[in-house]
Write the structure tokens for this entry.
Amino acid sequence: MSSSSTFQRTSFVRRALLSMLGLLALTVLVMTALVIRHDHPLDIPSDQSRWDALALPDAQPPAGLSFTTFLTAQSAGAPEGLIVAGGSWFTPRRPVQFAVLIRHPKGNLLFDTGLGLRHAEHFAENTWWHQQLFAYTMYTPVKTQLTQQGMADLPLRWIVPSHMHWDHIGGLQDFPATPVWTPLRERQTAAQGRPPAFLATQFQGVQHWLNLEFTHPPVLGFDQSHDVYGDGSVTLLPLPGHTAGQVGMLLTLPSGQRYLFTADTTWTLEGIQRPADRSWLLRQVLRLDHSEPQNQQAIVHLHQIARRFPALKVVPAHDERVYETLPRFPQFAD
Ligand SMILES: [Zn+2]
């Protein structure tokens, strides 16, 4: 081989490499421009009078009411910029999957279950690609944690899933005797849904469904509500958008502390504070919401509530930082 043909080949390889690098840089530049263009905060109405007039509802939480949470799993992680529009692309976040147990003299309620005993079987419904995308670290299912503390027989009156996505209802089968209480619409859309959002193996065998209907007066700007115990301590709220029948929950403890569980309207508190949706980039790759405009309306609504009531503790379903501030089983807060 002559030295001139070696030179030509080297120069060709170099040019090809430079072109690829140039193309990559251009792609990064275009994507960055698109992300900056789209990942802006959501509009807040300039007229705040409706929100300024809002009052927290009355509640008489009884003695004996307390709550705790169970960390069942945690996502492998993603840059914050993907999880919430306007978040840092250099800050890793690790969304959590947890359940909330409310002990009440009139019957105990589990809000979400996180992942359950049969998580591996459920997750196998996903394609290989989705299994990589939604990879998680498994901790301990609610059922096992209760058993470990000698509370396997704790009576559970209801399970209320915030919605029926896989990371919220993995433990339904671990409590086969407990009625599952959801809006009918949520159940119907889940039955027609597909992986990775809905995994039929998680809910096909549920024996007792109850229809959740919002027949009680407006609360916190929501047109309807459902006061679970009739004392205002636990109020379920319609939060459709992320799914067709997503449910939020306002909890008032005997101490007076209030919590608003906002499900997957946003994955982090920053989403409600900013207010901002999940990143535009992620929303191009995955269809995350039943109705994106309706979910964005819900984000702005929650933003207004959080702004109006700074002492109210707002708890998105996956924010690992907020989760650190909650009581963790076997500790209860009352
Ligand atoms: Zn979720």
User: Anything to note?
Assistant: Residues 165, 167-168, 264, 317-318 surround zinc ion (CB under 6 Å). Residues 3-38 form the longest helix (36 residues). Residues 279 and 285 are 10 Å apart (CA to CA).
